[in-house]
């Protein structure tokens, strides 16, 4: 079955809102705690589903230089997650919010396919992923010609690069199969404030033959990408080799929550992008829905239940973060900081069981 046909799994997916309700916890929270990201899918040269990603500007206060999905916070209480995510995508990479304009000038519209449940960010915001698909009027030869005219524009205050990756590569570790483009894929089940949390990382070469032509012109020029003299000397002594794909099972120091989004691979000396943390978790869950029909029995996608519990017991209530929230933000997997400080014991134990899958 072609990847595009598997979007039927995504269209039929029923979002797991808190308490199995019809409404997401996103709408309960203060405006300052509402965030949304747009997952833009399109079909690549080999018929594979690809996802558009950005590298955050090194000037940003939060997560500078990290790989992310286009998105941001709500401006008003009247904005829906879709409106927030498409507005932010337009501001970050210049892809118009107007489907009529896109159809007239480039021959495609962005279909709003579905949503995933909310995820709790490390800044204690509720992040709602909205999934869209680039839907063309026809897939003839004029498709590439139209896309050549699609001049995306990186907002230097928001992003420093745009690229894409095969969605299926994010399916690991639910399925262990050869990656299409990923060089290294890792997964650890750790704890964040006492709750099981998946720490995933997927690395990709910055230059790859499978990249879409309309994304190949973007070169990362951010300050965080510049190499030091030591890096340059090391690269000169060790010319780049052909990157090899790796699965990582070995233990490593988990006191730090990942690295910058772009760096040089230690073994091959090839420049890579590292998709990790929340973005990696969102894309892994999306891959499960698309390719497995979310057949991992009993596994909870997103953190709607955790977010609701924290809100219900007095956290996530205002624009300013509480002292407890700051402690959770700054905690590591080995710290004693715990969401159990505010969530009653039985409810906390239930959440631990829920997210252990």
From TrEMBL:
GO molecular function: coenzyme A diphosphatase activity; metal ion binding
GO biological process: coenzyme A catabolic process
Record-linked SUPFAM superfamilies: Nudix (SSF55811)
Stretches the record annotates as Disordered: 225-248
Residue ranges occupied by any Nudix hydrolase domain in the UniProt entry: 32-187
Keywords: Hydrolase, Magnesium, Manganese, Metal-binding
Domain of life: Eukaryota
Keyword Signal: no
Pfam family, one: NUDIX
Cofactor: Mn(2+); Mg(2+)
TM spans (from-to): none
Protein name: Nudix hydrolase domain-containing protein
Organism: Candidozyma auris
Organism phylogeny: Eukaryota, Fungi, Dikarya, Ascomycota, Saccharomycotina
């Amino acid at each position: 079955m072609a990847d595009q046909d598997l979007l039927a799994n995504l269209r039929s997916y029923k979002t797991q809102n808190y308490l199995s309700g019809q409404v997401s916890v996103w709408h309960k929270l203060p405006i300052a705690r509402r965030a949304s990201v747009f997952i833009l899918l399109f079909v690549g040269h080999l018929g594979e589903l690809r996802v558009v990603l950005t590298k955050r500007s090194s000037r940003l206060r939060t997560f500078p230089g990290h790989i992310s999905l286009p998105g941001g916070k709500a401006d008003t209480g009247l904005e829906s997650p879709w409106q927030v995510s498409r507005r932010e995508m337009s501001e970050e990479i210049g892809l118009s919010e107007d489907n009529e304009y896109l159809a007239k000038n480039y021959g495609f519209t962005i279909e709003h396919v579905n949503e995933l449940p909310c995820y709790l960010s490390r800044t204690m915001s509720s992040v709602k992923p909205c999934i869209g698909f680039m839907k063309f009027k026809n897939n003839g030869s004029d498709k590439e010609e139209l896309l050549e005219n699609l001049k995306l524009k990186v907002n230097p205050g928001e992003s420093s690069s745009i690229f894409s990756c095969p969605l299926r590569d994010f399916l690991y570790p639910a399925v262990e199969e050869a990656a299409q483009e990923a060089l290294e894929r890792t997964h650890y089940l750790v704890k964040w404030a006492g709750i099981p949390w998946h720490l995933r990382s997927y690395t990709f070469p910055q230059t790859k033959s499978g990249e879409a032509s309309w994304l190949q012109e973007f070169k990362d020029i951010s300050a965080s990408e510049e190499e030091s003299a030591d890096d340059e000397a090391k690269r000169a002594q060790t010319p780049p080799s052909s990157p090899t794909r790796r699965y990582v099972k070995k233990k490593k120091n988990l006191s730090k929550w990942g690295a910058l989004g772009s760096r040089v691979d230690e073994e091959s000396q090839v420049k890579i992008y590292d998709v990790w943390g929340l973005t990696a978790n969102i894309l892994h869950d999306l891959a499960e829905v698309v390719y497995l029909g979310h057949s991992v029995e009993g596994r909870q996608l997103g953190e709607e239940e955790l977010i609701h519990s924290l809100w219900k017991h007095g956290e996530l209530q205002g624009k300013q973060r509480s002292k407890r929230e700051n402690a959770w933000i700054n905690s590591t997997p080995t710290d004693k900081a715990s969401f159990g400080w505010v969530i009653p014991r039985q409810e906390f134990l239930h959440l631990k069981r829920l997210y252990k899958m």
